[in-house]
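Structure (tokenized):
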């Protein structure tokens, strides 16, 4: 029998296991992932499968995801954590000196002509779009990330609005 279905294990222990082990494994290196729609859906499906198993429900029970989240007391989703980590990394790289390799890579544009067709989705475009849609740094200086404490406050403030 799968231990995640076990009613003897408390919800609190399931949350601790999820937060300490599963979430860290799933989101390892996520600071630099270009989040495409397909990847977002796979991450959401994986996370909900884990919560569904922990709740002891199967797809055949026809219980909606929102209900599973309420049963398990899920406060925020893994995608929010990944995006927060990406914003934190973006601010960190922006504060680096121009001579640092991560900063050079972030600002690098390849020479020559690109291949035919639609350009590939780049990490920078995803971050810039996400910052715009979340309204991070609205009505403020363009270089909000230069002040580390202010950048963290802004990211945390926007997390609450998700």
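Design, position by position:
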């Amino acid at each position: 029998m799968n231990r995640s279905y076990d009613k003897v294990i408390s919800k609190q222990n399931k949350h601790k296991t999820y937060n300490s082990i599963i979430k860290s494994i799933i989101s390892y290196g996520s600071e630099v992932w270009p989040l495409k729609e397909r990847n977002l859906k796979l991450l959401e499906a994986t996370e909900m499968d884990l919560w569904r198993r922990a709740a002891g429900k199967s797809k055949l029970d026809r219980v909606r995801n929102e209900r599973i989240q309420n049963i398990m007391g899920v406060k925020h989703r893994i995608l929010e954590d990944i995006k927060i980590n990406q914003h934190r990394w973006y601010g960190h790289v922006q504060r680096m000196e121009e001579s640092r390799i991560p900063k050079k890579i972030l600002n690098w544009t390849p020479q020559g002509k690109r291949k035919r067709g639609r350009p590939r989705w780049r990490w920078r475009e995803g971050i810039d779009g996400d910052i715009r849609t979340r309204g991070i740094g609205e009505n403020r200086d363009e270089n909000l990330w230069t002040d580390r404490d202010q950048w963290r406050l802004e990211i945390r403030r926007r997390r609450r609005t998700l």
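Reviewer-requested clarification: The two ends are 37 Å apart (CA to CA). The mean pLDDT is 86.
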